[in-house]
């Protein structure tokens, strides 16, 4: 059968490539350490590839419980997308869902922002009782994240519960995250479904994704196939390009902030440190980006930076996926700088 290398990602090809994720908790699959393997079952276009599919099926009898396929999505004209997004949210909801709520797709009278909010409130959006907490996923300084379930759609969600201080109100990171995610709509950026505000907390309702890239690499025993590395890197760059095109810096790229669902989709998350930039170089805080993924100029105290701050993090994450270990695992700022200069050399006047 043809080699899988000849069917990997190509610039001039839009063939679908699948890969399997063999979980460590699946001993019946016959693989150890959760290592990721490519799936030879390719979804090809045209009858000429029938022999390839048949040969692959004969060679592989084990079907992974998780198969990822990149499909060609139907392209829509920008006018159609703009028209659809301009519709009130209750009109964009599925008809069967609206039918259960006894709402009409064609409400009488002119639709205004106030009437749209009223319709969504009647459905149950913006109400904490519309969601059920299941498991606690993590806790930070200001927020606790729960796995939850929506009673409106029966789908799993992630509930980020932010504690409100009576004196200070909502943390600036929460306000920043909400304001940015309202405008960032992309397949490789986590979706903010709902916002719930009470006297004691602010809850952000996100789509639920099973694990982050750090957990994924740990499950693989830090051994990832280059096919999967390229798939994840492509999705990371595509989501980041969307942000940069809209003049938004993430500023906190790390494997823990890259979420992955069961179909292999990678999405940027945790925009608490993200910032919209007005000009290419503007003074910001240098207390951004986790130490291992922080560029040397920021480590040295620079507060003027632009999109390269994110691209440095992309390079570090790329190395970690490909080699199975962090590139610059410094324990302090001085240690981090020492590791960078040891590999890349000391900066000169030309490179500063």
UniProtKB/TrEMBL annotation:
<dbReference type="InterPro" id="IPR011009">
    <property type="entry name" value="Kinase-like_dom_sf"/>
</dbReference>
<dbReference type="GO" id="GO:0004693">
    <property type="term" value="F:cyclin-dependent protein serine/threonine kinase activity"/>
</dbReference>
<dbReference type="InterPro" id="IPR050108">
    <property type="entry name" value="CDK"/>
</dbReference>
<keyword id="KW-0547">Nucleotide-binding</keyword>
<dbReference type="Pfam" id="PF00069">
    <property type="entry name" value="Pkinase"/>
</dbReference>
<feature type="domain" description="Protein kinase">
    <location>
        <begin position="131"/>
        <end position="352"/>
    </location>
</feature>
<keyword id="KW-0808">Transferase</keyword>
<keyword id="KW-0067">ATP-binding</keyword>
<dbReference type="InterPro" id="IPR000719">
    <property type="entry name" value="Prot_kinase_dom"/>
</dbReference>
<keyword id="KW-0418">Kinase</keyword>
<keyword id="KW-0723">Serine/threonine-protein kinase</keyword>
<comment type="similarity">
    <text>Belongs to the protein kinase superfamily. CMGC Ser/Thr protein kinase family. CDC2/CDKX subfamily.</text>
</comment>
<dbReference type="GO" id="GO:0005737">
    <property type="term" value="C:cytoplasm"/>
</dbReference>
<dbReference type="InterPro" id="IPR017441">
    <property type="entry name" value="Protein_kinase_ATP_BS"/>
</dbReference>
<protein>
    <recommendedName>
        <fullName>cyclin-dependent kinase</fullName>
        <ecNumber>2.7.11.22</ecNumber>
    </recommendedName>
</protein>
<dbReference type="GO" id="GO:0005524">
    <property type="term" value="F:ATP binding"/>
</dbReference>
<dbReference type="InterPro" id="IPR008271">
    <property type="entry name" value="Ser/Thr_kinase_AS"/>
</dbReference>
<dbReference type="GO" id="GO:0005634">
    <property type="term" value="C:nucleus"/>
</dbReference>
<feature type="binding site">
    <location>
        <position position="160"/>
    </location>
    <ligand>
        <name>ATP</name>
    </ligand>
</feature>
């Amino acid at each position: 059968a043809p080699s899988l290398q000849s069917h990997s990602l190509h610039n001039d090809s839009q063939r679908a490539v699948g890969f399997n994720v063999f979980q460590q908790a699946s001993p019946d699959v016959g693989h150890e350490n959760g290592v990721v393997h490519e799936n030879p079952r390719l979804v090809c276009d045209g009858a000429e590839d029938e022999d390839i599919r048949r040969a692959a099926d004969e060679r592989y009898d084990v079907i992974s419980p998780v198969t990822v396929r990149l499909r060609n999505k139907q392209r829509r004209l920008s006018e159609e997308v703009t028209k659809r997004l301009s519709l009130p949210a209750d009109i964009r909801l599925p008809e069967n869902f609206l039918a259960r709520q006894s709402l009409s797709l064609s409400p009488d009278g002119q639709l205004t922002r106030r009437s749209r909010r009223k319709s969504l409130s009647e459905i149950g959006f913006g109400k904490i009782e519309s969601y059920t907490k299941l498991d606690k996923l993590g806790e930070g300084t200001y927020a606790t994240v729960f796995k939850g379930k929506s009673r409106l759609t029966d789908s799993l969600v992630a509930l980020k519960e932010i504690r409100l201080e009576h004196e200070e109100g909502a943390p600036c990171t929460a306000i920043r995250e909400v304001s940015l995610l309202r405008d960032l709509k992309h397949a490789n950026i986590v979706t903010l479904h709902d916002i719930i505000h009470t006297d004691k907390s602010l809850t952000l309702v996100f789509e639920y994704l099973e694990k982050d890239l750090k957990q994924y690499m740990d499950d693989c025993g830090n051994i990832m196939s280059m096919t999967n590395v390229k798939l994840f890197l492509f999705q990371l760059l595509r989501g980041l390009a969307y942000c940069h095109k809209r003049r938004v810096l993430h500023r906190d790229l790390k494997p823990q902030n890259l979420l992955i669902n069961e179909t292999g989709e990678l999405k940027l998350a945790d925009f608490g440190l993200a910032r919209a930039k007005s000009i290419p170089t503007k003074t910001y805080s240098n207390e951004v980006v986790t130490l291992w993924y922080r560029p040397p100029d920021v480590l040295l105290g620079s507060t003027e930076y632009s999109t390269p701050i994110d691209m440095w993090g992309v390079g570090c994450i790329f190395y970690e996926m490909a080699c199975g270990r962090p590139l610059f695992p410094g324990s302090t700022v001085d240690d981090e700088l020492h590791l960078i200069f040891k590999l890349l050399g000391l900066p000169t006047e030309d490179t500063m």
